[in-house]
Design a protein that fits this description.
234 residues, alpha+beta, six-stranded antiparallel sheet, 30% strand
Length: 234
């Protein structure tokens, strides 16, 4: 992968079989890998020490282009557990290459947001929102994320409800998941900068690992309620 100049470990791979329980068409007969997850990356030993000291992790995920029986290829979807401060852990993403649709849904399903994003865009996932990433483009989607290393993602809700509140089909339509009996209408929100915490288009996400603010943001979300209250507005 030319985008990453460091050593890459063996990826975790999600296949059609792994994803079947969250697909729009679970009886789909397609097979094969859908996306690859490279966890806990660092360019140098010093960078890795900075990440560990800050309690954060830098990852890269590669989502292949195409569809699975009419649905664009996506990630499995998950929520984050609560941090010690009482809010669930947030996350920040950067599109390194390709096009992405970040689908966010609040835990009470009163808000469902679609973030379109392209190379260089950054997306904050606020506390209280589960999320799925979709590749609607013709090329691989390569994205990075920074997240706390102090928890494990919770996939149970998305497994129980066969995915997110909406499926994106490869004709560009968004179809409501019939297992969701009540859910908000899908709204669209463009990617925006968050200069208060250094999350801006001009600064690569990897560069933020050296700023203690990003570790605080990921691990102590209760100290940044002004950020979360505004990051999905507009």
């Amino acid at each position: 992968m030319d985008i990453w100049k460091g050593v890459l470990p063996e990826p975790e791979v999600r296949t059609v079989e792994d994803m079947r329980e969250v697909l729009a068409y679970p009886a789909c007969e397609q097979q094969g890998p859908l996306y690859y997850m490279y966890r806990d990356l660092a360019l140098t030993d010093d960078d890795h020490a900075i990440l560990r000291e800050g309690g954060i992790r830098y990852d890269i995920t590669v989502i292949t282009p195409g569809s699975v029986c009419g649905e664009f290829i996506k990630t499995k979807g998950h929520y984050h557990p609560e941090s010690p401060g009482g809010l669930s852990y947030p996350e920040v993403y950067e599109v390194l290459s390709g096009k992405a649709h970040f689908l966010l849904q609040s835990q009470d399903l009163t808000d469902v947001v679609l973030h379109p994003a392209t190379t260089g865009d950054k997306i904050l996932i606020p506390p209280g929102f589960g999320h799925v990433t979709i590749n609607p483009g013709e090329d691989p989607l390569v994205m990075a994320n920074i997240v706390s290393r102090n928890f494990e993602s919770d996939y149970a809700f998305f497994r129980a409800y066969r995915g997110a509140a909406y499926y994106e089909t490869d004709d560009g339509q968004f179809r409501k998941n019939p297992l969701y009996t009540r859910v908000a209408d899908l709204r669209f929100h463009e990617a925006v900068d968050h200069p208060e915490v250094g999350v801006v288009r001009e600064v690569p996400l990897y560069d933020l690992i050296r700023d203690p603010l990003i570790a605080d943001l990921m691990n102590s979300p209760e100290a940044f309620t002004h950020i979360w209250e505004n990051c999905l507005r507009g």
